[in-house]
Design goal:
The two termini are about 30 Å apart. The chain is elongated. The strands form three sheets. The protein has a nine-stranded mixed β-sheet, sandwiched between helices. The protein contains ten helices and 16 strands. Helix 3 runs parallel beside helix 4. The protein is about 25% helix and about 25% strand. By secondary structure, the chain is α/β, with parallel strands linked by helices. The protein has two domains: about 140 residues, Cytidine Deaminase, domain 2, CATH 3.40.140; about 200 residues, Dihydrofolate Reductase, subunit A, CATH 3.40.430.10. Converts 2,5-diamino-6-(ribosylamino)-4(3h)-pyrimidinone 5'-phosphate into 5-amino-6-(ribosylamino)-2,4(1h,3h)-pyrimidinedione 5'-phosphate. It catalyses: 5-amino-6-(5-phospho-D-ribitylamino)uracil + NADP(+) = 5-amino-6-(5-phospho-D-ribosylamino)uracil + NADPH + H(+); 2,5-diamino-6-hydroxy-4-(5-phosphoribosylamino)-pyrimidine + H2O + H(+) = 5-amino-6-(5-phospho-D-ribosylamino)uracil + NH4(+).
Amino acid sequence: MKIHQKYILRGMELAKKGLGTTAPNPMVGCVIVYEGKIIGEGYTSPYGGPHAEVNAIRSVQDKSLLSKATLYVTLEPCSHYGKTPPCADLIVQHGIPEVVIGIKDPHIKVAGKGIQKLEEAGCKVTVGVLEEECREHLKRFLTFQEKKRPHIIVKWAQTHDGFIAPEAKLRKSSPEPFWITNTYSKQLVHQWRSQEQAILVGTQTVLEDNPKLTTRDWAGKNPVRVVLDRDLKIPKGFHVLNQTVKTLVLTQVNDATRYCEGIVYEVIDFSKPIAAQICHVLHQHAITSMIIEGGSRTLQTFIDENLWDEARVFTGTSVFGSGVPAPKLHGKPISEQSILTDTLSIFTND
C-alpha cells in the first residue's frame, strides 16, 4: 500500500494546481505508472475543460503502455456526461488494467457508478487510499455534495485587545478600509480570495469600508461577491455594485424596480435565521466555497448557527481600547503562525 500512497500523494500535489479554477468541479490529480515509473500525469482543467484523467492520459507519449499501466486518481472517475464525457469510459477505452482511487465520489450522478463501470470492464479497482487526506484535500467539493452548502471560511483581523474596528468617531469621513494587519497578511488574504469561489460581507462593512472585494495583491480570479443588503441601503456608486465582478445581493426587498442592472438579487427572510438561508441560495448557485470577511455581526451569525468549517483569525499589535468587538469563537486553534508582526490562528469546526 505504500506504493499506492506515494502516487496518490503525488496526485494531491498535482490537484492543488487547480485550486480556485475548477469549481464547481472538484480539483483532482491523476498519475499513470508503468513498471515503477510515472509515464503520465494531469490535474483538472479550469471549469468546463478536461478532467484530470483525460489530461494524464493525453500526456502519455507511448499510448501502448496504457494497457499495462496503473492509473492513480484522488477521486472516483466520473461515469456521466457533463461538460465532458465520462472519464471511466476513457479509462476502459484505453484498456488500463488497474485503477487506484483515493475516495469514492459522493456526487449523486457518480456515487460508485464509476467504480462499477471499471470493474465490469475487467479493471482491478482499489478504493480508499489515503482517504482522510483526500477528504481534507477535497473539502470544498465534499462539503457541497454532502452538506448541500458551500465550504465556509470565516476570517477577520483583530487588534491585540480584541477589536475588529475602531470607534466610528476615529474613522475618516469617507468610507475606506481600516487596516489592522500588515502588508504581508493583506497579500495572503488576496491569495485566499483567488482560491475560493465567493466572498461575503454585510451591509455595514460595505457602508463603512466601500470594499472592492477583488483579488488585487495576488495573481488569480476574483471571487463572486455576495452582499447582504436587507433594505437596499448601499448607494449605487459603491464598488460592490460596479458590475465589474459577478455580484449577488441578498435582500428582503422584493421590488425589481429598485435593483441595479447587472447585479443578481435573491430575496430571503431576515426575520428568520439567515445563515442557513444564505447557504441554501449559494447551493442553488453552485457555489462550493465562500470566505466571509465581515463584519462582526455577519461573522457571528454564521458561528452561532454553526455554519462554518474554518476560521482564520489575524491578531495585530495595535490597541484600540474600545470599538467593535471581534466575534466570539470557542475552542483552541489547530495552528498558529507569525506573519512579521501579526499572528494568524487557524480553527476548524470539527
